[in-house]
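Slides due. Your pick:
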Amino acid sequence: MKAVGPSPTIAGTCPADIRLGHRVWLQDGGTPVFGVGICELLRRVETTGSLRRAALDMGMAYSKAWQIVRRAEDHLGFKLMVRRTGGRGGGWSTVSDEGRWLVRSFEALTEEADPLLADLFGRHFHAWPGAPGTAQADVEGESVRGNGV
């Protein structure tokens, strides 16, 4: 999970350790199909030439890595990897052109999201209750967060 905030415009208005945490993923009909984990897996496949090695590097079972890749491919409608099974010279895996496009696009999206979310955090949490120079937002007997949260 990434953490962003506070932005420089609100520095000092909320406790220093309070940040906005967020996760970004693509979903199909509510089912998560592509996020930071599979993105990292594909990055490692690209550098190692092996799904097995990429999974091992991430502390993941090879069978689990295959399951994640196949499920994503089924939902996305295209292959994420090009593979050649063993035999003379052994097998190898690489990321497909579509997979490379998806990794680049996903990483660009998440990179752009961070400063946008930091800005939103700053705009919506600039008047932190009890911070110096802000009005006390917690009215006696009422929840600041609303809905009893």
Remarks:
- Residues 6-12, 136-149 have pLDDT under 50 and may be disordered.
- The longest strand covers residues 31-34.
